[in-house]
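So, could you explain the following?
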Amino acid sequence: MKHSLISSVVLIALCSAPLFSHSLAAQETSLEPVVDAANKINSAAKSSQLTVEKIADSTQERIQQYKQITRQIQGLEVYTQQLQKQINAQAAEKDELNASIDEVSVVERQITPLMLRMIESLDKFVQLDVPFLPEERAERVATLRELMDRADVDVSEKFRRVMEAFQIEADYGRNIEAYNGEMTVAGQLQDVEFLRMGRTVLLYKTRDGSSMGVWNQQQREWQPLDASYASNVQEAIRVARKQLAPDLLMLPVFTSTSSTGE
């Protein structure tokens, strides 16, 4: 009886095995769509994650570009402000230059007549002055007259040349000079040595020393000079030519109260 029961159980088990296998196969078949759906969801999730990562990277890159552009804009704003200051300064300088140009035009119209009067005064002064270097000084005045008529020379250069001529004339009164020239002596044109000490003394000596004369500015004529002055005159000429150290010299000087003095 017991053996028969065991056999029944085995028989039931054997009989139920095909049923279980059939049920498992049916269950696997029913789960395939779910697994496929899960795989699709996982694939979609992975793709979405990659998309999110790309968007995040792109967003970060855009943020860095934005920050960089912002810094560039700030730098350009500062640069623009500095340029505006320079433009304002240049505009102010332009206004000053325009005002200066207008003033220069006024000054130019006023200074040209002044220079003409100065040249005229210089010409008269040279004519009335002690007659040393007459050709050179007269030529200087003539050159200034020609210069004033030239249109290719600036007014500033003309004024400089006029002032230079006045300075040269002023220097004549503070120095000593010896130079060679010609003079009519005893009715004959002879080579002579002139000696000028400022505008106080102007005298001449022939080459052989046989004749000497001194200019009398009060009477505006040459007067003979005594032979006793020969050594002093020669020494003074050597001093003027820087051949001898300066020393005390005895030379004739004309004054307004006396005809001749020393």
Summary: The longest strand covers residues 176-185. Residues 112-171 form one domain. Residues 149 and 158 are 10 Å apart (CA to CA). The longest helix spans residues 2-128.
